Amino acid sequence: MTTRPAARGLMITLASLVVLAGASPAASESPAARAVDARQAGFKQIGAAFKAVNDELRAGKPDMAALAAAAARLESHAAQLPTWFPRGSGPESGAKTKARATVWADAAGFADAAANLKAQASRLNALTRDGDLGAVRKQAVQVGAACKTCHTAYRAED
Ligand code: HEC
User: Fold this and answer.
1) Cα angle vertex 110, ends 54, 56, to 5°?
2) What's the CA gap between 99 and 110, in Å, rounded?
3) Which of 39, 43, 125 to mutate to test the pocket of ligand 1 (most atoms within 8 A of CB)?
4) Which atom of ligand 1 lies nearest, measured to the CA of 146?
5) How many CB atoms lie within 10 A of CB 95?
6) Alpha-carbon dihedral of residues 100, 104, 106, 109, nearest 10 degrees?
7) C-alpha–C-alpha distance, residues 44 and 81, integer Å
8) Ligand 1: does its nearest atom lie under 6 Å from the Cβ of 151?
9) Average pLDDT of the chain?
10) Angle at 56 between CA 41 and CA 82, to 5 degrees
11) In whole angstroms, what is the distance from residue 22 CA to residue 57 CA?
């Protein structure tokens, strides 16, 4: 007796699903968990770039090239930020995220907060090329305020 073609097809499909599910740890993660991992990695890069800016500013004689490079990285990560929040990657997904549901419920406000960071980081980047350290320092404070404004409204407390 032979297996009917339809049943055989189904068996092959099931077998390949089992293979796919076991392929790698990342493949077993939900799309929401993957999105959260990617955005937390992005924020770590934003954090590292901003720390590099502040470390240079605290140095007695800042390395202007390093300062400008860190500010450029910060601006480019800030430009990416709005793409890190796909719908369905909020707390309702069960993924371990500190993003509040208000990110999506108040999408216009969140977009403004993201655009503000991008604008402040862009200004910082431009100022690092002028060599006026006083102006760079003041602008770094504005960038820090842009981080804080968004965290206060859209990120859950520790
Ligand atoms: C438009 C909103 C917004 C702006 C602006 C913003 N953040 Fe965040 N940040 C968030 C949210 C929301 C989370 C939580 C992400 C999650 O857990 O899914 C977060 C998380 C983080 C984290 C933790 C990442 C991790 O390891 O889990 C760091 C560090 C961070 N932000 C640094 C910064 C810095 C530094 C700035 C400014 C230069 C900044 N953020 C600007 C919204 C923002």
Assistant:
1) 5
2) 11
3) 43
4) 5
5) 19
6) 90
7) 12
8) yes
9) 89
10) 30
11) 48
Nearest residue (by CA) to ligand 1, atom 20, is 43
* Binding site membership of 46 for ligand 1 (Cβ less than 6 Å): yes
Instruction: Return the amino acid letter for 126.
Output: A
Q: What are the tens digits of pLDDT across the range 85-136?
A: 999 999 999 999 999 999 999 999 999 999 999 999 999 999 999 989 999 9
pLDDT of residue 119: 98
pLDDT of residue 26: 58
C-alpha 1 chain-centroid distance: 57
Residue 154 CA: which ligand 1 atom is closest? 12
Task: Find, among 65, 72, 79, the residue nearest to 118 by Cα.
Answer: 79
Task: Answer yes or no: is pLDDT of 18 > 50.
Answer: no
In angstroms, the CA 75 to CA 60 distance is 24
